[in-house]
From TrEMBL:
Its main location: membrane. GO terms for biological process: siderophore transmembrane transport. It is found in: Cell outer membrane. The lineage of its organism: Bacteria, Pseudomonadati, Pseudomonadota, Alphaproteobacteria, Maricaulales. This is Iron complex outermembrane recepter protein.
Length: 671
């Protein structure tokens, strides 16, 4: 198997990591490096291994040990406990996540990766989190990168990135079985295992199955009636193989499959029940060469979603090549190129011709270490996207012809960050980024005639829609206040121009310009968020540990009128204040954690039936959760979990469902 060769010295311990051989995000020994440097390590931001304090972006690293202490059953539940994370739970499995902004239905602003593979859905750019083929027990760490990161990470990374990394099977055999059982018919079974096949091969396997009663619908939303009778279901499978072809060349392959049925909120605030079936394939070759650390990778996502308004079948095939190398001892350079081919069936109405896009992208990153106290990172990316459609639309209904879909989009994105370690202590980051939120399948190719009151209306994508441009500026400061207390703080400004948004209850086009009234996906205006966040983590000697964080957000919209051409209202839907606190105790065989979350009041959109748009006020929400775990022996443990214990049969946190208290018992066996 490939070995990472690390040389350390006094200067390396002070200034960063000094690597003789390359290591990717998938092959890095995170546990060993974190123990060596006394803090989490990542290769996600620049491709080169870095300590968390050296990363040229505001990044939160959530380790596998952190994950195990949360009374949570999915990744959105874990993320809600961190500063800057807006999480709204629209259903048992539909927790939408945004960074520094409202987590609306089908939030399309976040790039989510599992071992480097994009898992957000190309149909609308959102993440159906329950479909991720990952069990919590197999996660090595979750890296949350805040702000526009398109030049460093690629597509969709406009409010940030969530990078999920699973345990490396090359680093040792393991097996973990997990069984949960709780209130409201909740059951969860998972099995994860890794095994070495000789000296040059290893495999990772994971399997999960979850069932639960969905949350009851919000009583004021007639479109959500009966949701409490729906069964949430989730079944996932993942199989990964790693092979050392030579001492310097590795092959990684992966297959995943997931099937999910859940209640969710759509992009136009309609409550819905949807079924997902997703299959993915991934392969990559990594080579440590004289030209640098070369990576050639590819993946294919095949997605079928049965929405309430029709069946959507999409596929995404992507290939990338990357070279990471050093020039001297102070310059790290990464060059990469990417090809993407996305396809969709005629959706939701058949017969309008399949459609899709092809993308060619090139990017470059340069990181320069000027001294032990100053480091600069610059990155740029160019995207060329060509859209097309295979067939003609019915001219009696739709305002666009086949030729109108021959659209080319060209955009440039960038990231720049200066990391400074001043003499007075700590680390300061000054960063800016320009992200590109490209149009999705819904935005361009959607086509559906509907009948309302005996009249024909048309819902259509718009091939003339433009990419939304997101620019952010940030100043961040980290430091240890004492051996037991760490501080993290940031000021940020996040601006979106030409925000992409779905239609409102009033048509965008009327006869006689068109044959029937047409509702369009389109650009709906601008919005900006100004804010601050601060986190304190305490790890004193002894059994206790604690953390508190607070986020302030102020939003200013310049959008189309709410309830006319859009249902977007970021000012109303974004909470001004978010706060979280945790206290933990660890003994020889027992450990316990108590967590409290606060979300300030919001006014959120609701659309029980098409055209009936209104705002619903949601009061301040305080939730309390608890987890207590008893370690029976080296292999067995049992835990009691209480999630939102004070919510009872339901607390209003959105206009879709009532978020309920859930209690469950967990039995974990590890070998």
């Amino acid at each position: 198997m490939k070995k990472q060769i690390l040389t350390t010295s006094i200067s390396a311990l002070v200034a960063g990591l000094a690597w003789q051989a390359g290591a990717s995000a998938q092959t890095l020994d995170y546990t060993a490096m974190s123990e060596l440097f006394g803090e989490p390590v990542t290769a996600g931001a620049t491709g080169a291994p870095q300590r968390a304090s050296d990363v040229p972006a505001t990044m939160v690293i959530i380790t596998g040990e952190d994950i195990r202490r949360f009374p949570e059953r999915d990744i959105p539940g874990i993320l809600r406990h961190y500063a800057g994370m807006d999480v709204t739970r629209y259903g048992f499995g539909d927790g939408q996540v945004n960074i520094r902004g409202a987590a609306t239905g089908y939030t399309p602003r976040l790039l989510v990766l599992v071992n480097g593979r994009e898992v957000y859905l190309d149909s609308y750019g959102y993440t159906a989190w329950a479909t991720l083929p990952v069990q919590l027990d197999e996660i090595q760490q979750i890296e949350v990168v805040k702000g526009a990161q398109s030049a460093l990470y690629g597509f969709n990374a406009v409010s940030g990135v969530v990078n999920i990394i699973t345990r490396n099977p090359e680093l040792g055999n393991y097996a973990t079985a997990h069984v949960d059982g709780g209130t409201d018919s909740y059951t969860d079974l998972s099995l994860v295992a890794a095994y070495g096949l000789g000296e040059r091969a290893s495999v990772r396997f994971s399997l999960g199955s979850t069932r639960a009663d969905e949350f009851a619908g919000y009583p004021g939303n007639t479109g959500a009636a009966g949701f409490g009778d729906v069964e949430f279901s989730r079944d996932t499978l993942a199989l990964e193989g790693r092979f050392a072809l030579t001492n310097k060349v590795n092959l990684i392959t992966e297959f995943t499959h997931s099937e999910v049925n859940q209640v969710e909120s759509t992009s136009i605030a309609l409550a819905a029940e949807s079924e997902y079936e997703i299959t993915s394939y991934r392969a990559g070759v990594e080579a440590d060469t004289d030209l640098g650390f070369l990576t050639v990778s590819g993946f294919r996502n095949e997605v079928e979603v049965l929405y309430s308004f029709g069946l959507n079948e999409t596929s995404l095939t992507a290939f990338a090549i990357e070279d990471l190398f050093k020039v001297g001892t102070r310059n790290t350079i990464r060059l990469s190129a990417e090809y993407r081919d996305g396809e969709s069936n005629s959706f939701p109405a058949p017969g309008n011709g399949d459609f899709g896009y092809e993308t060619l992208a090139a990017s470059a990153m340069w990181s320069r270490k000027f001294s032990d106290s100053i480091e600069l990172t610059l990155a740029g990316r160019y995207d060329h996207v060509d859209w097309s459609r295979d067939g003609d639309l019915d001219p009696a209904l739709y305002p666009f012809s086949q030729e109108d879909y021959d659209v080319t989009i060209e955009e440039f994105s960038y990231n720049a960050a200066l990391v400074w370690r001043p003499e007075f202590g700590g680390t300061m980051r000054f960063s800016t980024g320009r992200g590109v939120l490209a149009p999705t399948m819904f935005d361009i190719g959607f086509g559906l005639p509907v009948t309302v009151g005996g009249n024909t209306l048309v819902i259509s994508g718009d091939p003339n829609i433009e990419p939304a441009i997101v620019t952010n500026y940030e100043i961040a400061y980290d430091r240890s206040l004492s051996p037991a207390v760490d501080l993290r703080a940031a000021l940020f400004y996040h601006e979106t121009e030409k925000d992409r948004g779905a239609f409102g209850p009033v048509p965008d086009l009327f006869p006689p310009a068109v044959n029937a009234p047409v509702f369009l996906f389109g650009n709906r205006g601008d919005t900006a968020t100004t804010g601050a966040e601060v986190t304190l983590n305490g790890n004193p000697e002894g059994p206790w540990n604690w953390s508190v964080n607070y986020t302030l957000q102020s939003v200013e919209d310049d959008l189309s009128p709410f309830g006319v051409n859009t249902v977007r209202d970021y000012e109303g839907a974004t909470p001004s204040h978010l706060a979280n606190a945790r206290v933990g105790w660890t003994g020889e065989r027992f450990r316990a954690d108590v967590l409290v979350n606060y979300v300030s009041s919001t006014d959120v959109p609701m659309q029980p039936a098409f055209g009936a748009v209104s705002r619903v006020s949601v009061d301040d929400v305080i939730s309390a959760s608890f987890r207590g775990e008893y370690v029976i022996n080296d292999h067995l443990s049992v835990a009691l979990n209480a999630q939102n214990a004070n919510f009872g049969d339901g607390e209003q946190t959105n206009a879709n469902t009532l978020t309920e208290s859930r209690f469950w018992l967990s039995l974990r066996a590890g070998f």
